[in-house]
Amino acid sequence: MIHSVSIRPFPDQKPGTSGLRKKVRVFQTPHYTEAFIQSVFDAEPGLRGATLILGGDGRYLNREVIQVALKMAAANGVARVRVGRGGLLSTPAASHLIRISGAIGGLILSASHNPGGPEEDFGVKYNIANGGPAPERVTDAIYARTLAIDRYLILEVPDLDLDRLGEQRLGEMVVEVVDPVADYAALMETLFDFRTIRALIASGFSLRFDAMHAVTGPYAREILERRLGAPEGSVVNATPLPDFGGGHPDPNLVHAHALYEHMMGPDAPDFGAASDGDGDRNLVIGRGRFVSPSDSLAVLAANAHLAPGYSAGLKGVARSMPTSGAVDRVARALGVACYETPTGWKFFGNLLDAGRVTLCGEESAGAGSDHVREKDGLWAVLLWLNILAVRRQPVAGVLDEHWGRYGRNYYVRHDYESIDSAAADSLVEALRTLLPQLPGKRFGPLQVEAADEFAYHDATDGSVSERQGLRVMFEGGSRVVYRLSGTGTSGATLRVYIERYEPPSGNLHQEPAEALAELAAAADAIAGIAAWTGRNAPDVVT
Ligand code: G16
């Protein structure tokens, strides 16, 4: 029996950098979740009679919302939903499933690296038929619908058993519960030389993968332990928990600190890695050596041809604007194009679909390729392992050689979290006004060469995205970028990205904080961060 439930629109359902992210209790507001899901369905013209993919990262509320989404999909005329067992699907696995199922799209329930639990965060993302995050024209249509919606449709039926593989019926709709790992693991086997990686591990190469109690646990155990032969226990925190064990499933030096300490200690394995809540981010640390995400992207681009899936070379690469220029140097050496996009994986989709790029990545610990349309944490780990297995060098050696050839882009990101939204907006507005006056000004020993606000012109569809970050470029190639995060759920988060290039002949082994100290001071002086936010230091440095 289909119910049409009358509702009033919610004014705050504008999707951010990656879907709608809010506190759990906001999603628990009566009709709130249903209103957003119905808006997605209403904005998707091909939904009736189509296949839809559904899964999430297992965080608090995941199972409940899966049930709601299934009943709404049935009431809205969807023909088939393929849902991960237990309601689980990592974001890259969902992207792959959309692509191989010929699905119209997929709903992914995740707030990514944000914490989970009754007092924490939840999120709903919609991915389109190419497997990638809905582009802005779609998220704009969804948002417009949220402002006008007056009803949602839902089937009144008991909950489905999400833990039993196979097909069940929900009204006219078929629900197929699938193994969340199998198709994804099979895809990885086509891209990487599992035999060579297995041989490396069998020769005594040790690794630790920290799944942070999030969705990649089952994927990493299957691939790293069962298929590649890493000893049991190499994957730690491998059981997805609704509150991620009370942690913050963000693979950076702050939240994956235990892994970092282990990798810097006397018993460190050869290779350490972590992923985030929904499995699309990655952190890579060699024994005694952290690899910054921007450097990781550059190393992967320079060495991808060592893996079978990329042996034909790269068509091109792309990075988000705040990501360091390290990969640009590799692209130049390879003679391929390098695209600069705004923050957000959704901006890579068109370039990948058009066959202009093979690899893309972001400073926010994301890297991926044209194998899916999402960033992919385990994929990055496997590409690293494939490279190490062929080169038979430690991570630190690979990085040193890379810097010795291309130079080093010293890089750091400062996050000022949960600051007052009005103060954050005022800071940005004041800085925007200041930009034209900055060229020629000196800050300590640094002289500003240019300053602008980044706008992106998508060469494939002609769309333009304005106001994507404020940039201050200094003589000598250093730069500072400022932007407000689009993924936070309380107040505003100011991100300040700081970068300086050191040529191969320079000092390649300084501490980033030291190498970037003058720039960091200039970044504060230019934007008046302390004055606007009342903070004297960032909350998170990555
Ligand atoms: C999302 C996006 C990424 C983006 C990151 C940070 O990642 O998919 O493209 O770089 O947020 O965005 P912001 O700086 O606006 O907070 P995830 O892993 O959270 O889905």
Radius of gyration from the alpha-carbon trace, in angstroms: 23 Å
Write down the domain tally. 3
Strand content: 25-35%
Cofactors and ligands: 1,6-di-O-phosphono-alpha-D-glucopyranose
Q: Tell me about the largest β-sheet.
A: 7 strands, mixed
Poorly predicted spans = none
Strand order of the biggest β-sheet:
2-6-5-3-4-9-8
Number of helices: 18
What average pLDDT do the residues reach? 97
Shape: globular
What features would you highlight for this structure?
542 residues, alpha/beta, Alpha-D-Glucose-1,6-Bisphosphate, Chain A, domain 3, TATA-Binding Protein, 7-stranded mixed sheet, 7-stranded antiparallel sheet, 18 helices, 33% helix, binds 1,6-di-O-phosphono-alpha-D-glucopyranose
Quick overview:
This protein has 542 residues and is of the alpha/beta class. The protein has 18 helices and 27 strands. The radius of gyration is 23 Å and the shape is globular.
Describe the structure.
This protein is α/β, with parallel strands linked by helices and 542 residues long. The chain folds into three domains: 2-180, Alpha-D-Glucose-1,6-Bisphosphate, Chain A, domain 3, CATH 3.40.120; 184-406, Alpha-D-Glucose-1,6-Bisphosphate, Chain A, domain 3 (3-Layer(aba) Sandwich); 408-541, Alpha-D-phosphohexomutase, C-terminal domain (TATA-Binding Protein), CATH 3.30.310. The protein is 33% helix and 26% strand. It has 18 helices and 27 strands. A seven-stranded mixed β-sheet has the order 2-6-5-3-4-9-8, sandwiched between helices. Helix 2 packs across helix 3 (62-75) and helix 2 crosses helix 5. The longest helix is centred in the last third of the chain and has 15 residues, at 377-391. It is globular, with a radius of gyration of 23 Å. It starts with a strand and ends with a strand. Bound molecules: 1,6-di-O-phosphono-alpha-D-glucopyranose (G16). 1,6-di-O-phosphono-alpha-D-glucopyranose (G16) binds at residues 17-18, 112-113, 276, 280-281, 343-345, 362, 364, 366, 485-487, 495.
